[in-house]
Design goal:
Distance between the termini of chain A: 70 Å
Strand order of the largest sheet of chain A: 2-1-3-7-4-5-6
Oligomer: heterodimer
CATH architecture of chain B: 3-Layer(aba) Sandwich
Helix content of chain A: 25-40%
Helix content of chain B: 25-40%
CATH topology of the largest domain in chain A: Rossmann fold
Number of domains of chain A: 2
Radius of gyration of chain A: 23 Å
Strand order of the largest sheet of chain B: 9-8-7-10-6-1-4-5-11
Number of strands of chain B: 13
Strand content of chain B: 25-35%
CATH class of chain B: Alpha Beta
Largest sheet of chain A: 7 strands, mixed
Order of helices and strands of chain A: EHEHEHEEEEEEHEHEHEHEH
CATH topology of chain B: Rossmann fold
Structural class of chain A: alpha/beta
Shape of chain B: globular
Distance between the termini of chain B: 56 Å
Number of domains of chain B: 1
Bound molecules: flavin-adenine dinucleotide, adenosine monophosphate
Low-confidence stretches of chain A: none
Structural class of chain B: alpha/beta
Largest interface: A-B, 94 and 84 residues
CATH class of the largest domain in chain A: Alpha Beta
Number of strands of chain A: 13
Largest sheet of chain B: 9 strands, mixed
Mean pLDDT of chain B: 96
Radius of gyration of chain B: 21 Å
Number of helices of chain B: 6
Strand content of chain A: 15-25%
CATH architecture of the largest domain in chain A: 3-Layer(aba) Sandwich
CATH superfamily of chain B: HUPs
Order of helices and strands of chain B: EEEHEHEHEHEEEEHEEEH
């Protein structure tokens, strides 16, 4: 049986390929075949290829691009779509395991479909290291499929360290108390060359911009060290921390979920603890340069 | 101008998710409910657009009788009226949700004319299907742009900024259009007391669609295994600072 895979550059598509191979012989359709990006044109090309190859299933990475092209394909073909799967097995019905709540919950489901459409959640299955599948020609898109297409690109404006790439993140929650309260968070971040993050309680209060928010509806982060100051650790916040190597929680409540899900904890008032850590870093550095 | 927003009632899960005995739903006995932050931004954007351009705004939800609370929340922020597609509390998959919303939208458009914009969240908070808005748009034969962090009217078109890895991609599409949005699009206002009062008397139309057999059929839910962290206490108060710096040094980040 033939299967189709929407291929983007990078790991997540090769991870999608791993699950696709369980369904049949993969053929790849490169996302870059339509430039500039036009998701309806890609969905139309996939739909044509499904016909031509009589493909029994279609896969893509569960990236923004992958999910949106596959949902457009599902609408066109009038088929169900299982998004962000971490497992899938052929059968009648096919079965899938998929992420819910940004990964805080898993769902086992049956996919009743003549052609399963599946996107694979990034970094949840090993990447396929077999040969690149043969590439499908895209053909020229219909005009109507180019109404939605990228016409311009805006580069990020803030020159600072981006949350998604930061090695260290100092993050503050409602416990920081106010917009001004973030001065001590910024001071520590400055000393560590870290990015500043925050919880949704903080962005909703207008203390920090949404671009600083970590979590299910904010940014997913993967630092060496994540320092959570005055954050309780709601599941939607933790959904953004799955990639963090080490978590240090500072909280006055030792039973806060973040304190129970951290690697290291300090109990007490962050307004005393955070400046004390900054002072200690300065002391350690001064000691190093004078000796 | 006419604008619709589709929202979904979801539980506020707190620090730990507990499932029902049959593992097919979250145990919500002690939980509050809300709409997704993405959808809240859709509501705020709709209210701002109608404040600036005049017209009619409608909020729709498919959900149990209690979901009227989320409809009232949206009306407290300034939405004019609501359409409640009532369910018995069972979950609907993305396909059937889109089909039911489509019917309700078509019925409203038949009486009142097309919506210039229909807002959806980029993905629902609970099931995260990434599809309902795109399905409705395809059935209406309207352009749909996803994952938006900024929306600007430009005459009979709308300029859309979509968040991507290295910045933002820009799309300009003609109205009527379907737009799926993300938190960060705007900073939603808090509902005022008079807003809440007014919301109580705003109209809510009820319809009761029939639930088709889901083709993406939930079998059971699982709480994923923890990440195996065992918290090591570094002490309490300012006295813990040297131990913290030790940890930074060992992690190689100092
Ligand atoms: C669909 C959905 C999506 C969401 N997405 C996100 C998201 O992306 N990111 C996110 O963060 N949230 C998200 N939320 C919100 C989330 O549920 C929580 O409401 C939020 O994370 C709470 O923020 P917080 O921990 O700062 O506040 P709180 O829960 O109020 O916690 C404050 C903490 O600070 C501690 N504290 C108070 N004072 C001090 C002090 N002086 N010193 C030390 N500790 C102190 C308290 O003990 C407490 O633990 C989402 C919610 C929903 C429903
Ligand atoms: N039951 C529902 N009622 C109204 N709108 C919904 C419902 N389910 C999903 N939506 C809308 O569709 C968006 C995408 O949902 P999903 O495809 O499930 O990720 C959500 O953010 C909502 O705007």
């Amino acid at each position: 049986m033939n299967v189709l895979v929407l291929m983007e550059p990078g790991e997540p598509s090769r991870q999608a390929l791993t699950l696709a191979r369980k369904f049949g012989e993969p053929h790849g359709l490169p996302v870059q075949a339509v430039q500039p990006f036009a998701p309806d044109a890609l969905a139309a090309a996939l739909a044509r290829a499904v016909e031509e190859l009589d493909a029994g299933a279609v896969f893509a990475a569960g990236t923004d691009r992958g999910n949106e092209v596959m949902a457009r394909l599902a609408a066109r073909l009038n088929l169900p779509l299982a998004a962000n799967c971490i497992g899938a097995a052929p059968g009648d019905p096919a079965t899938v395991t998929r992420l819910r709540w940004g990964g805080s919950l898993l769902e086992e489901a049956r996919l009743h479909s003549p052609r399963p459409l599946v996107t694979v959640a990034p970094h949840t299955v090993p990447a396929d290291d077999g040969p690149q599948p043969p590439t499908i020609e895209v053909g020229s898109p219909a005009l109507g499929d180019l109404v939605v297409r990228v016409s311009d690109h805006i580069k990020p404006t803030n020159g600072g360290i981006s949350l998604a790439d930061a090695k260290v993140i100092v993050s503050g929650g409602r416990g920081v108390g106010s917009k001004e309260g973030f001065a001590i968070i910024e001071e520590l971040a400055g000393l560590l060359g870290a990015a500043v993050g925050c919880s949704r309680a903080v962005t909703s209060a207008g203390w920090r911009p949404h671009s600083d928010q970590v979590g299910q509806t904010g940014t997913k982060v993967a630092p060496e060290v994540y320092i959570a100051c005055g954050i309780s650790g709601a599941t939607q916040h933790m959904a953004g921390l799955k990639g963090a190597k080490r978590i240090l929680a500072i909280n006055s409540d030792p039973q806060a979920p973040l304190m129970l899900n951290a690697d290291y904890t300090v109990t007490g008032d962050l307004k005393e603890i955070v400046p004390a850590i900054s002072a200690e870093i300065r002391r350690a550095r001064a000691g190093r340069t004078s000796s | 101008m006419r604008i619709a927003v589709c929202i979904k009632r979801v539980p506020i899960t707190g620090g730990r998710i507990v499932l029902t005995a049959d593992a097919r739903a979250i145990n919500t006995q002690h939980l509050g409910f809300t709409m997704s932050p993405h959808e809240e931004c859709g509501v705020e954007e709709a209210v701002r657009l109608i404040e600036a351009n005049k017209g009619d705004s409608v909020v729709l939800t498919l959900g149990p009788p209690e979901a009227v609370e989320q409809l009232r929340d949206a009306m407290a922020l300034g939405i004019d009226r609501a359409i409640h597609l009532q369910t018995d509390g069972q979950e609907w998959d993305g396909e059937s949700t889109a089909a039911a919303l489509l019917d309700a939208i078509r019925a409203d458009e038949t009486s009142n004319g097309p919506f210039d914009i229909i807002f959806f969240g980029n993905e629902s908070a609970d099931s995260g299907g990434f599809q309902v808005g795109l399905r409705v748009a395809y059935a209406l034969n309207r352009p749909c742009v996803t994952g938006l962090k900024r929306v600007t009217l430009e005459g009979s078109s709308v300029r859309c900024e979509q968040e991507v890895e290295d910045g933002r991609d820009v799309y300009v599409v003609p109205l009527p259009a379907v737009l799926t949005v993300k938190e960060g699009l705007n900073l939603p206002r808090y509902p005022s007391v008079p807003g809440r009062m007014r919301a109580r008397s705003k109209p809510v139309a009820d319809v009761t669609p029939a639930r088709p057999a889901p083709r993406l059929e939930l079998v059971k839910l699982l709480v994923p295994a923890g990440q195996g962290r065992r918290a090591e206490s570094l002490g309490s108060g300012a006295a813990a600072a040297p131990a913290v710096v030790d940890v930074f040094q060992k992690a190689g980040v100092l």
